[in-house]
């Protein structure tokens, strides 16, 4: 029997994603791809996979069929369990046919990635396996009862491993952005109001855009522009003055002024915020944005560290750590 990944349960927003469908925006095709690219790379590179399953806080559960699979999980601080045993929110594990992997919303984070070592044997659409649910491009969102065929499966680890990756750590630091490309459509006072505000992720947020709740940002030169291309992280200000941060399923072009664009190194932090959570922004210059992106991807290239999990602290394991650095006699 060929190996398959069985979907036991899937909440809303569980989809297959690869790096995206690029080069087609001029034809009106949205790139899609992962919401948190750094977390996606942590999972796929650890497992040796060419795509991943993106899970939102609705959760999911999986089983293997036909072989023990190599699975890597990374993203927000989700509740990850293997046969009921808690796993770190970033981990690599063997998923045997008799085992069950469950993911549920945890302390923080909106997106988590499950990568299977090898290849999801799913037909690409326009050169990509990324799901764009609004347009129906790519594989359909996953549901309980689905079975995903696998090819070129990788050897699983002998035991679960914890992954440590600094770029996955949550942070309350302001989200950095570059002003523009239409910052000139706003008076300086409105730009300062945007930067100084404490914003909240609105309930009407999804993979297309996060609605930011806070002060109303007024236009100085009207709210209509000739439609132009939009990048992930662009922040549009429509006519109602409520900012929209455009994300993975964004439209290819937009006709509202864009006051700023989130830098690449901080897109994952923005994407991992849940509705109701707060954030602030800080404007940076081009050199700082480039340096941050370079450092971010250098850390990803270095890879996540892997450590075995210990079910309990035995006397042997404590002695092996050489916890005592010396002995002092009070009589000396």
Structure characteristics:
alpha+beta, twelve-stranded antiparallel beta sheet, Cyclophilin, eight-stranded mixed beta sheet, single chain, globular, 332 residues
Q: What would your notes on this structure say?
A:
The protein has 332 residues and is an alpha+beta fold. It has two domains: 4-168, no CATH class; 175-284, Cyclophilin-like (Cyclophilin), CATH 2.40.100.10. The protein is 14% helix and 32% strand. Strands 1, 2, 3, 4, 5, 6, 7, 8, 9, 10, 11 and 22 form a twelve-stranded antiparallel sheet that branches. Strands 20-13-14-17-16-19-12-21 form an eight-stranded mixed sheet. The chain has a two-stranded antiparallel sheet with strand order 15-18. A hairpin with a 7-residue loop joins strand 16 and strand 17 (244-246). The chain starts with a strand and ends in a 12-residue tail after the last helix.
The ordered H/E elements are EEHEEEEEEEEEEHEEEEEEEHEEHEH
Distance between the termini: 71 Å
Rg of Cα set: 22 Å
Structural class: alpha+beta
User: Main beta sheet: strand number and arrangement?
Assistant: 12 strands, antiparallel
Low-pLDDT regions = none
């Amino acid at each position: 029997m060929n190996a398959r990944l069985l979907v036991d349960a899937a909440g809303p927003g569980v989809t297959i994603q690869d790096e995206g469908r690029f080069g087609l925006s001029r034809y009106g095709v949205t790139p899609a791809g992962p919401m948190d690219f750094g977390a996606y790379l942590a999972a796929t590179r650890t497992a040796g996979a060419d795509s991943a399953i993106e899970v939102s806080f609705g959760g999911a559960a999986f089983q293997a069929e036909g072989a023990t699979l190599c699975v890597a999980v990374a993203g927000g601080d989700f509740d990850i369990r293997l046969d009921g045993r808690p796993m770190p929110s970033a981990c690599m594990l063997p998923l045997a046919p008799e085992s069950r992997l469950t993911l549920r919303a945890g302390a923080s984070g909106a997106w988590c990635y499950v990568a299977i070592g090898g290849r999801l044997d799913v037909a690409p659409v326009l050169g990509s396996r990324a799901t764009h649910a609004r347009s129906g491009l790519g594989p359909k969102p996953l549901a309980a009862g689905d079975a995903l065929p696998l090819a070129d499966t990788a050897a699983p680890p002998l035991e679960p491993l914890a992954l440590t990756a600094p770029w996955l750590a949550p942070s309350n630091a302001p989200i950095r952005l570059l002003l523009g490309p239409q910052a000139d459509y706003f008076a300086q006072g409105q730009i300062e109001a945007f930067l100084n505000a404490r914003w909240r992720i609105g309930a009407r947020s999804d993979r297309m855009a996060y609605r930011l709740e806070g002060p109303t940002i007024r236009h100085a030169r009207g709210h209509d522009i000739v439609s132009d291309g939009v990048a992930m992280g662009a922040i549009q200000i429509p006519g109602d003055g409520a900012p929209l941060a455009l994300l993975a399923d964004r439209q290819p072009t937009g006709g509202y002024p864009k006051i700023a664009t989130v830098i690449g190194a901080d897109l994952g932090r923005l994407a991992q915020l849940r509705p109701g959570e707060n954030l602030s922004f800080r404007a940076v210059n081009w050199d700082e944005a480039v340096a941050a992106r370079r450092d971010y991807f250098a850390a990803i290239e270095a890879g996540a560290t892997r450590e075995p999990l210990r079910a309990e602290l035995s006397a042997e394991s404590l002695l092996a750590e050489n916890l005592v650095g010396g002995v002092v006699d009070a009589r000396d």
